[in-house]
Amino acid sequence: MAESFKLLAEYLKLPFVRYALIVGVLVALCSALLGVTLVLKRFSFIGDGLSHVAFGAMALASVLNIMNEMPVVLIFTIITAVLLLKTGQMAKIKGDAALAMISVGSLAIGYLLLNIFPPSGNLTADVCKTLFGSDSILTLKATEVWLSIALAIIVVGIFVFFYNKIFAITFDESFSKATGTRAGIYNLVIAVVIAVVIVISMKLVGSLLISALVIFPALSAMRVFKNFKAVTICAAVLSVVCTLTGIITSILVNLPIGSTIVAADIVAFLGFTLAGLIKRSVSK
Amino acid sequence: MKKIFCITAVLAVMFTVCSCGAGGSSRNGRSGIKSNTGSVADTIKERIEGGKATEEPKSGSFRSDDLSSYGKKIDIDVTKMGSTMTYSQVSNFMTNADDYIGKVVKIKGNFTYGVGDDRYYFACIIQDATACCSQGIEFILKNGRQFPEEYPAVGDEITLVGVFDTYNEGKYQYIQLIDAYIEK
Q1: B84 with A138: Cβ contact below 8 A
Q2: Looking at domain A2-277, does it have CATH number 1.10.3720.10?
Q3: What is the pLDDT of residues B158-170, one digit of tens each?
C-alpha cells in the first residue's frame, strides 16, 4: 500500500498526470450535472448517439488532415444535438429512432472513411483509443486542458444560473411554456451544453462509454435521494469520486482508463442501490 | 425530389473533398509529431522496411555500459512506470517534445535499427500494454561504437539513459536521446 502511494506521488509530479486529473474531474462534474436532466427527460442514450456523431466528425477531420479537430467535432455534434432535442414533436422520425439512425450512421460512415483514407499507419490503435479512451486522457496538451477548463466553467455556470428554469423544463415542459418560460431557448441551450460535454468527455472515456459517465451518477443518486437538488449534488460528487478512483486505479494497476472509470461507476451504483433498499426498509 | 438531389450533392462533395484531402501513403502537411501512434515510430518502421541493411548485427562483441556511472541525475525514469504510464509518457515525448529538451531520460524497450541515405538510425521500441501498437525513440550513443558488432541484436531488450533532444529532417521534427548509455 505504501509502495502504491509512493508510486502515485511520483506520478503526480508528471504534468500530463495532473492534466488528466484536472480534466477528468471537470468532465465528470459536467457530465453528472447534465446527466440528471437527461435521465429525467428520458434522453439517457443521447450521450451515446452524440458521441458516435463526434466519432464520425473526428474521422472526417482526420481524413481531411485538419490539425485541430475539436472545432469540427464541436460543430457537427452541436448541430446534431440541436436537431435531435429541438425538433421534438415536429419531427417525422421521432426520438429514439432518429437517435439510433444518426448514431449508427455516424459510426459506420466514420469508420468507413478511416478505412478508405487511413490518416495513420495504425488505424486499429487510433480507433480503439477513440472508442474506449484507453489512455487518451493522459496525452493532453496544455492548450486542451485550458480549453476543457473554459468549457467546464461555462457549462457549470449555465447550470447554476439557469438552475430554476432547467428544473422547470425537466419536470414539466408544457407547464413551463404555459407560465411564460421560453422552453425552446432553454432546450437549445441544454442541447448545445450536452454536445460540448460529450465532446470533452470523449478524451476521458472514449465514444462508446460516454453514456455511463452521464447516466450512472444520476441513477445512483436517485436510488437514495428523491429531491432534485440533492440528486444533482450527489450525482456530481459521486461522478468526481468515481472518476478520480478510476484514473488513479488504472494508472497504478495498468488498466484502460475509460473502462476502469465505468467499472467504478457500476460499483457505486450497486452500493447506492443497496443503500436505498436499506433506507427504505428502515423508514418503514 | 429536391431534398434527395441536395443530399446526393452533399455526399458527392463530401467524398470529393475527402479524396482530395487525404493522399494514399503521404504524411505530408503534418508536423511529424503526433499523439499515440507517433509518426516517429511510423518513420522508423518505414526506414527499416525501406532500408538497405544487408546483414543482421552480431551481438557477440556487445558490451553494456554502466548506467549508474552516467554522471547526470535522471529526470524521468520511464522504466519504473507501469505499462499504461510508460506508453502515455512516450506519447507525451512525441506530442510535447519541447517540454523535455535537455532532460535526462531512462527508457527500456527493444532495439531496432534502420538505414538512411548516409547513416544508420538506432531506436528503442516500446510496446503499449495490449501490444497492439508501439512507439520508438531514436538514440545516439555517447561512446562511439562499431555497428553492427558492438550493438545489440534486433529485438533485444535494452535500457537506455540519455539526454532528450529533437532535430529536424525535411518537414518533420524527430525526437532522440543523445549522449546515451546502453545496457542489455
Answers
A1: yes
A2: no
A3: 999 999 999 887 8
